[in-house]
Structures are given as C-alpha cells and as structure tokens.
Amino acid sequence: MTYPFENLVFEGGGIKGLAFCSAIQILEQKGIMPNIKRLGGSSAGAITAGLLACDHSSQELFGILEKKNFNDFKDDSFGAIS
C-alpha cells in the first residue's frame, strides 16, 4: 500500500510529546517513514521533529525524551506574560 503524504507536523503539548514516539514507531513498522521528506512542529513537536530530522529512531526518541526534564524549557524571563 502506498501513502501519498510526505510531511509530518507535530503539535506542542509538553510531556504529551512522548506519545509521538509510539505513533512514529507504527510509521516505522509500516515502512512509511522513508517516504517522509519534511518535518515540522511547535514546542514539544518541534523537539520531536528536530530529533527525527537528525535520523533518530522512535526508540532513540523515547530514550532521549523520557530522560528530559521538560521544566528546562520554561522561560519566565518576561514575568506574567511568559
């Protein structure tokens, strides 16, 4: 079966970004990932897209994200509007 899509875009969602690892694992198992030409995302999705762009597998992604403290990404330098 062929799949016509070539792009993956991941939304943000903080720790929910770990769920992308399972979705990517299914795409790998189905042989769809080699068809993907462009990746994008916002927030946690951008981290996922960036790691995928660096050729990390779903298992590697999970290992990296599982150990990451997502509080490191919080920026309150603008006070109440952050």
pLDDT averaged over residues: 86
Order of helices and strands: EHEHH
Give the helix/strand class: alpha+beta
Count of discrete alpha- or pi-helical segments spanning 4 or more residues: 3
The share of residues in helices is 25-40%
> What is the total number of structural domains?
1
Integer-rounded radius of gyration: 14 Å
Distance between the termini: 46 Å
User: Reading side by side through the largest sheet, how are the strands ordered?
Assistant: 1-2
Number of strands: 2
Estimate what percentage of residues fall within beta strands.
5-15%
Tell me, briefly, the overall form.
elongated
Biggest β-sheet strands, sense, barrel: 2 strands, parallel
Which regions are unreliable across 5 or more consecutive residues at pLDDT < 50?
none
Descriptive report:
- The chain is α+β, with helices and mostly antiparallel strands and 82 residues long.
- The chain has one domain.
- The protein contains 3 helices and 2 strands; from the N terminus they run E-H-E-H-H.
- A two-stranded parallel ribbon has the order 1-2.
- The longest helix has 11 residues.
- It is elongated and about 50 Å long.
Annotation keywords:
82 residues; alpha+beta; 38% helix; elongated
Brief account:
It contains three helices and two strands. With 82 residues, the protein is α+β, with helices and mostly antiparallel strands. Helix 1 links the parallel strand 1 and strand 2.
